[in-house]
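A.,

Following up on our hallway conversation. Structure tokens first:
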């Protein structure tokens, strides 16, 4: 069964363990939207958590805004079944994940019409609670 947020066929099905570099991550400033959510810690986000976040944002803003999520889960995470002895190779792919670094933008929102600043901030705060990491809400001065 193929998930909605899983990439097309990749060259290698299984990867090494996910490690975070010491350097800076790309995509740390707002480019497409006026409001955004920025990560404040290094974390691995599963496709399931990203999908619940996307659904909550799209349900809240409906067709009032353009929602851009630059984070995509393209790293397979493997897991062996319970009560299996050591050895016999690597486990099967359990889920897909995305690597999110400190200071990286998780989502950007651009509104089509005029919108209340307080409503946008409170809505993003409510949707950000679906993510398993610390975050910060950004806004451009217009």
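Then the amino acids I'd put at each of the 142 positions:
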């Amino acid at each position: 069964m193929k998930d909605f947020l899983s990439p097309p066929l990749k060259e290698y099905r299984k990867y090494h363990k996910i490690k975070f570099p010491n350097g800076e991550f790309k995509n740390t400033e707002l480019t497409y939207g006026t409001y955004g959510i920025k990560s404040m810690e290094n974390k691995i986000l599963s496709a399931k958590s990203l999908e619940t976040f996307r659904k909550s944002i799209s349900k809240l803003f409906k067709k009032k805004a353009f929602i851009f999520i630059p984070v995509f889960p393209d790293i397979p995470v493997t897991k062996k079944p319970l009560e299996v002895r050591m050895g016999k190779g690597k486990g099967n792919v359990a889920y897909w994940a995305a690597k999110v670094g400190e200071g990286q933008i998780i989502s950007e929102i651009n509104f089509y019409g005029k919108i209340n600043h307080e409503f946008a901030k409170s809505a993003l705060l409510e949707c950000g609670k679906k993510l398993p990491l610390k975050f910060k809400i950004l806004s451009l001065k217009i």
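The mean pLDDT is 86. Curious whether your intuition agrees with the design.

B.
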